[in-house]
Specification:
Number of strands: 5
Distance between the termini: 29 Å
Largest sheet: 5 strands, antiparallel
Structural class: alpha+beta
Strand order of the largest sheet: 4-3-2-1-5
Order of helices and strands: HHHHEEEEHEH
């Protein structure tokens, strides 16, 4: 676990640190989770405590911190046959439908739009997102597959 005060521009016990922890953002993972869900809200929490230039550096530093390889899922139905899959910092990675993973990069434009609209509902139900306990999907291997077949991100 990496504490949020370890990020560039956030001093332990400083104003920004207090504002973040007051909003329940204690770890870099918490920070990145809110960044994925609602960047404007995160920026408003920080307020004027960080300049725009420093904010950019803070975001870059946070994005470079990979905290774990866990994946998270939001089940869209009771039978758990339809779900949205996220990586460790809640970036949308794809759709699970009938136990089959469909990577974002391989979806049609209409499917992507649908999945992105579903992810907004998911973020509103943040407390219902859980760690994915099924087969792990290796996003690097998906990227390598896309490169082999000529698809680009």
């Amino acid at each position: 676990m990496t504490y949020v005060w370890r990020l560039v521009g956030i001093t332990m016990g400083g104003q920004v640190h207090k504002q973040l922890t007051g909003a329940g953002i204690v770890t870099v993972r918490d920070f990145l989770g809110l960044l994925s869900r609602d960047q404007l809200r995160l920026r408003n929490i920080v307020g004027g405590g960080i300049s725009d230039v420093m904010w950019k550096h803070t975001l870059e530093h946070a994005m470079s911190c990979v905290s774990d390889a866990k994946q998270y899922v939001y089940y869209c139905n009771e039978g758990q046959s339809n779900a949205i899959l996220f990586n460790w910092n809640y970036e949308l990675k794809g759709h699970i439908c009938n136990r089959q993973f469909l990577d974002m990069g391989l979806l049609s434009s209409d499917q992507k739009i649908y999945l992105e609209s579903m992810s907004k509902i998911t973020y509103q139900n943040y407390d219902q997102i859980s760690e994915y306990g099924g087969d792990m999907f290796n996003f690097d291997s998906v990227t390598q597959f896309k490169q082999r077949v000529g698809l680009h991100q």
